[in-house]
């Protein structure tokens, strides 16, 4: 009797239906320590970019290079923000896209919460620059998402993107960049919570700005330092690692000044190599943390080793 039942089940296969596929990614945060500082990379999601049309080299060359890395165009590009808990201040570098760039991005707050923090706890927001994928997350429905935070950005960046005269002069397909920056930053200006700075300066204890213009007029890298350990948050100094590490002279259409952008990339990569600094990049594959070493005119990217050691 029992044997017969078993035999029937065996012949007809498993009794239960196949499990439905889940098809969601794990919460997008990654944590590591830098000296006494806790660093949490927060994913805002990804953007599908037609990089073969955006990079400054011929499309066929980009596509051939991507293929060697088992990639293609459009390329799913990560959008990473970086949360630094210094022990006395909670500092967020960039805020993701909010609602500006569609449903594949704008996940910063959900992932911040998943990482154990609340938007109200953020003391300072440091913008690498005012493109939508970096400032769009500042607001939701016109309201400040981070009600207790002071927003910091280079004054050249503010002067460029928050200028109506510049927007009026800009080509039609670029005006949205200005509108996005104004809509996102203005509520903080109105609340007395916007503090521009000038070039290289100390922003909060342990975090210093390094002027890095070219991608935008006030593009900034942030140097985070604790107990002799350095982290360089390089913003959009690079977009497509599989192409631009090997050929760093390749620029992207989003660069306001391509030549300066390439020079700034070389400058900040050289600092990273010289200091042995950990690097955090906004658009390298999540979590976008690693080290850089020079190899002739090219660069080698060594992704950070996964760690669960968070003393
Ligand atoms: Zn960007």
What does this structure look like?
Strands 1-2-3-4-5-8-9 form a seven-stranded mixed β-sheet. Strands 10-11-12-13-14-15-16 form a seven-stranded mixed β-sheet. The chain has ten helices and 16 strands. It starts with a helix and ends in an 8-residue tail after the last strand. With 311 residues, the chain is α+β, with helices and mostly antiparallel strands. A hairpin with a 4-residue loop joins strand 3 (75-85) and strand 4 (90-93). The protein is globular. The model has no long low-confidence stretch (mean pLDDT 95). The longest helix is centred in the C-terminal third of the chain and has 18 residues, at 258-275. The chain has helices at 2-12, 51-54, 59-68, 108-114, 132-135, 155-161, 164-169, 175-190, 241-244, 258-275, and strands spanning 29-34, 37-49, 75-85, 90-93, 124-126, 139-140, 143-144, 150-154, 194-197, 201-204, 207-211, 220-226, 229-233, 278-280, 289-295, 298-303. Bound molecules: zinc ion. Residues 131, 133-134, 236, 282-283 line the site of zinc ion (ZN).
């Amino acid at each position: 009797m029992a044997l017969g039942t078993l035999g029937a089940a065996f012949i007809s296969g498993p009794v239960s239906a196949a499990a439905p596929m889940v098809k969601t990614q794990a919460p997008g945060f990654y944590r590591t320590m830098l000296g006494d500082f806790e660093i949490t990379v927060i994913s805002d999601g990804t953007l599908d970019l037609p990089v073969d049309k955006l990079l400054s080299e011929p499309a066929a060359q980009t596509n051939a290079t991507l293929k060697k890395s088992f990639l293609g165009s459009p390329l799913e590009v990560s959008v990473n923000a970086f949360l630094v808990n210094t022990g006395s201040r909670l500092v967020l570098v960039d805020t993701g896209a909010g609602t500006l760039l569609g449903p594949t991005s704008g996940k910063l707050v959900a992932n911040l919460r998943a990482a154990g923090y609340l938007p109200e706890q953020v003391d300072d927001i440091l913008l690498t620059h005012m493109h939508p994928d970096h400032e769009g997350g500042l607001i939701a429905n016109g309201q400040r998402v981070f009600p207790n935070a002071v927003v910091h950005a280079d004054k050249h960046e503010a002067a460029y993107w928050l200028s109506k005269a510049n927007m009026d002069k800009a080509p039609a397909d670029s005006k949205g960049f200005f509108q996005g920056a104004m809509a996102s930053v203005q509520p903080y200006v109105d609340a007395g919570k916007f503090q521009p700075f000038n070039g290289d300066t100390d922003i909060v204890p342990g975090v210093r700005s390094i002027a890095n213009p070219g991608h935008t007029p006030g593009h900034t890298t942030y140097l985070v330092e604790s107990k002799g350990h350095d982290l360089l948050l390089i913003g959009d100094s690079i977009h497509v690692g599989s192409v631009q590490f090997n050929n760093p002279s390749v620029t992207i259409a989003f660069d306001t000044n391509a030549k300066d952008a390439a020079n700034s990339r070389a400058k900040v990569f050289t600092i990273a190599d010289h200091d042995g600094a950990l690097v955090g990049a906004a658009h390298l594959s999540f979590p976008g943390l690693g080290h850089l070493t020079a190899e002739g005119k090219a660069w080698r990217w060594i992704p950070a080793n996964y760690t669960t050691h968070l003393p």
